Amino acid sequence: MSRLPPARHLKRAYLIAGASFFAVKGVILLVNALTFPRLKAQALPPRRPRVSLLIPARDEAANLARTLPGMLAQGADELLILDDGSTDGTAEVARELGATVITGEVLPDGWYGKPWACQQLGRAAGGDILVFTDADVLWHPGALGAVLHELEEKRADLLSVLPRPEQLSLGARFLTPLVDAVVLCYLPYPMVSWPQPSLSTGNGQLMAFRRAAFERAGGYSGVRNQILEDTQFARRLKKQGGRLTLALGSGSVGVTMYGNYPQSVAGFGKNSLAIHLHSRPLLILSMVWHLLFYTLPWLIPAPLWLRVAGLLERTLVNLVTGRRRPADLAEGLLSPITPLLALPAYRRALGREVSWKGRTYPQK
């Protein structure tokens, strides 16, 4: 009979795995710190394509009261809001602020809510550049000029932007900034230009398309029943020969995505299974892995370097994205408890259904 390896062998394997894990993520983060584009405020060019700014909205009255003035001030040729069955006065707030509101059609069979809302917006828009953005995204002065500049400079068919988290409550800080950490620590930006569709990601908070590429991909009809429709659209576009690029919102585009911890749990629970390739074993492995290397070192005798690596990662990510206030840099101190706080989101993701904004979708 074979014997279990001695405890020291297990410890050695654990430390090698931890060192390799943080080293790989550190190298990718360094590459992205040096290469990842950042938006810089720009005036709108005098000669430019017609631009449509498009906002799908379902019960977004509170967010639009805060963000819509900044969107309207960008100078787009048209700004359209799709009111997707809201019950909180979203349409009224938008109209009072001066936006054009489209009443959404009934959700057809086989479609998820956001792809259907975006499909209707794309159909109604008259622009040569279609810029889809969420109602909770903060557009600062010069942001649209920055988006158009980046799209043109990279000669891209799709520019997807990661807005910088802003105005976060303590509860929202536990999980919300992990969006940046996932992108910046797992996907080296130079690989985004490679032709492989799998080396793609998209962020539905802000996606700017050239209309020709958008229509060639079939609009959102090709991702009609996807929870992670943004990334799937980016991969679909690249598979058809389109050019994808990414950028950090930096000081031009921000977002207050979730107002508190329960909202973060709901949001991450909605997306987590899709992020893990719809594989429940992979999702469980991810959960255990993060507990092993961010939480466990604080519960057992562990080398200082392993603890420090976990603390530094989020702080360094925040530095790369331009979040440099003391409270932002201190987020690294949350790293040991973040995997524990993520457990409700994992539990939600493991279910057979997921609910979002009053609609329920099957988990594939």
| Uncertain ranges | none
Give the tally of structural domains: 2
Instruction: Using the coordinates above, name the CATH class of the largest domain.
Output: Alpha Beta
The number of helical elements comes to 15
Based on secondary structure, the structural category is alpha/beta
- Described by the principal axes of the CA atoms, the overall outline is globular
Order of helices and strands: HEHEHEHEEHEEHHEHHEEHHHHHHEE
Tell me the β content: 5-15%
Rg for CA atoms: 21 Å
Let me know the CATH homologous superfamily of the largest domain.
Spore Coat Polysaccharide Biosynthesis Protein SpsA, Chain A
Main beta sheet strand tally, sense and closure: 7 strands, mixed
What does this structure look like?
The protein is of the alpha/beta class and 364 residues long. 46% of the residues lie in helices and 15% in strands. A 7-stranded mixed β-sheet has the order 3-2-1-4-8-6-9, with helices on both faces. The protein has a 3-stranded mixed β-sheet with strand order 5-10-7. A two-stranded antiparallel sheet has the order 11-12. β1, α2 and β2 form a beta-alpha-beta unit. The chain is globular and about 70 Å long.
